[in-house]
Design goal:
The complex is a heterodimer of chains A (691) and B (235). Chain A is of the alpha+beta class and 691 residues long. Chain A contains 24 helices and 21 strands. Chain A is globular and about 75 Å long. Chain A starts with 8 loop residues before the first strand and ends in a 9-residue tail after the last helix. The longest helix of chain B is centred in the C-terminal third of the chain and has 12 residues. Classes of the chains: A alpha+beta (691), B alpha+beta (235). β15 of chain A pairs antiparallel with β2 of chain B.
Chain lengths: 691, 235
Amino acid sequence: MSVKGWTGKIAYVNLTTREVKSIDSEPYIKWLGGHGLASALFWDFCEDKTVKPFDPKNLVVIATNPFSGTLTPTAASRVEVTGIGAFSPNEWYTRSSMGGQIAGGMKRAGFDAFMVTGKADSPVWINVVEGEIRIEDASDLWGKDTFETQSAIADKLTNGADYGEWYKIPGSKKKEIMTRPAVVCIGPISERMGRIGTLCHDANHHAAQSGFGAVWSSKNLKAVSFCGSASIEIHDPAELLRLRRELYVKRDYKIDNPDAVPYDPYSETHIYNIPGRGNVLANFSYLPHRPESCEGCPSACRSTFPDGKGNESYCVSLGWGRGNIDSEETGRKNSDLLNRAGINAWETGTAAYLYSLYKRGIAGPGKKVDTGSLDFTKYGTHEFSKELIRMMVEHEACGAQLADGLVRAAMEWGTWEEDSATGELAHPQWGYGEHYSPQVETDWSFGSILGERDINEHSFNFWVYWMPRIALRILNTSPLLTAKETVELLSRTSGGMDPRCWDYSEENAYSDYRMECTYYYRHWTRVWIQSLTFCDWSWGGCRINLNDPYHDYYIDLDDYGCRLYKAVTGIDMTKEESYEIGRRIWNLDKAIWVLQGRHRDDEVFADYVYDRPNPEDSPYPMMIDGEWKWESGKGRTLDREKMEDFKTRYYQREGWDPATGWPTRKTLEELGLKEVADALEKAGKLGAANE
Amino acid sequence: MNQEEKKYPRSKGYLLIDTKKCSGCMSCMMACSLAHDGAINLGKSRIQIMKNPWGTYPDHDIKQFVCRQCEDPDCLKACPVGAMYVDEETGIRMINQEKCIGCGKCRKACKYQPTRIVMDLEKKVALKCDLCTSTPYWNEEGGIKGKHACMEVCSLKAIEFTTEMPETEDAYEVNLRKSLHYARALFPIDDEGMQPAKEAVAAAGLRPVGESGAAWASESISEEDIEVAEKEGKE
């Protein structure tokens, strides 16, 4: 491989024909890796992009990038997963991602990406060792939970070696390593085609929000394991080591140097670069534990515990179904069950919605929504969650519908229409639960409706939502930064865009400022978070650098990203070039959705977003009467007409046809996507020229 | 002290570790192989990390393993070709790559489990921690007066360098978690690593930590809800 950081090979497996081959990575370098690489591979190797998720022709890609398995802070561990998703009722081509040690593991096993299509005639797992790909019988793994599955595969590959023991790489007489194989697998919920099934790795790393677990299950694919000892070549080792250290000094928590980091409310609100605080808002101060990291990550946002319960667990899995009594402990125990079953914890409102139906008399034993053995007096306890999870896994009573996600369940129960209008079931778009108020935090909601899922990107969110919320609403103190300072810093980190791009006032909601913010963010996250896989939390969330030793709080993440890219690959890339690559990837994704049938008329929120006043009283930066203030967006709704006008202007900004939302030939060709334009034209779905 | 032990001058440098602080990120392994060999290869790192994501803290989840620069180095004594030697100036136990034949006898002779010697099978040589004496791909001086790549990239500061030989085997593992700041990040700072952080914070008279947890509190069951539920259950 001419470019460092890449292994040079991409694995392709067709389970129907049992064809296994390696493809040259070289032509894909321009897609950077991660999402860009995955979308380009999906475009080239999924012959019919209009198939349904469980069609054997669906193709699932797991993609690394040049940073995988290197010292690039926060970017070393993550892979991007794409394919036609089973979770959303719309079944778009979609994405998910996960960390752990999977990205480095894939490269050590010799591959930049892994693709699987077709359907095996009986359960299989795929065994990748030192560049060789084998399809193995998984009949003894089918039925095992995600922990048992990974353990069984690792046992086979390590010949039963204990953790911390050297083991011989399978097939090698002499080569010994200690680092364990990286395994991705599906759990029991996916085996029964539950669409909330994840791809699970280690204790709590999931490609969760996509339904890819059920897609793998439809292919009879239980797991993929990567084992190997390949070197990852680095263009400029000394520069990479230097940058790693420089960034540590500049942006990371000064762990043994108390005077260097201000305290209170910093340590409460600054959750990104303080080890262990990725448990986010859980309070484990009563429980001894250690910070735990994904591969190569300095942030160590997860934890392991004395009983091993809830190891590596994170915000939503710790929040699933828990009440206020003994909540952290309930969270740890619930999380373990979700992880073992391979359930997407972001369906975090599952228990609460069922309880709501119960209180309204719609759900109960033997009722329309049959709750079977569930005891609602125990709602909020681990016991309740345990029973509910069991029912979902075993497709018992209402668990059978909930295993496909709340929206599909509500559609089946006939409660969707009413509850999505009132907001009782607050899932604003594409079947995904509300993450932040879609009426107020519109860079999030507009990004989601213009895409295909809940965007789950916190790079602005932490500063405009969590920092002021925790300080003003919980700790009853002033936020570290004023509203004006916050937006000015966000502006600085985004190439000097106007600070009003982060004005969340009602007056500004549909403005060109907000449109520019949305436009920038769609491209920025596609390249930096989803393709070069810098962690959304630990990198993107550090857009404002509270740990700056000079208390300047400014950090040019993109400049560092480009320098790291150069150090690893040897390729020069400017920030501007990176955003253009992001725009190219975003347009390719859009073209795939259009082939699947997407039209601007689809890009409409659930009714409650327009009709029910936003109930959340949370402060955002807003320009009110010429002054920046932290103000609440409570009571806000979106206006249908203004939203449609916003879409028209956004499509024009993207160079898409405003009548349909489809990309035009001119836009696609400008991005080097002529063959994509040809494919859209052939399908009769090329946008009309944008006059 | 027997005659054999007197043959070798002590190393003037040692790495100490806090196995209760290590986050298992393996950055030290990447930095070690990168600084020494110019590419990242975890199998060739002279420091190794054991990580079991399902293991129980503190003994069965994460551990570091690194050469202890033994006073009586079995690895050195096992070398059949004289490739292993003690650096005259620093006392660091070294391998002469030119002389090493890659027989692996040093790897087997290491008295620790897992062995602290790693093999480069392509070059047919053994590798061990040289305290960064020879790091051609890193623009920093190593050795006993310089920097150490593993420490430089360890964000948790779970590795420490000392010039004093630890008195006992146990003394290679130390408590590097004594800063109250670590307790305010919710982690234990006592030697055993088992004291809840809030006790240390309270003992120091600092404001309690973890209050922001309230933001994540989900809907609780009200008395009224329980009554409704019980009534439903009876019907």
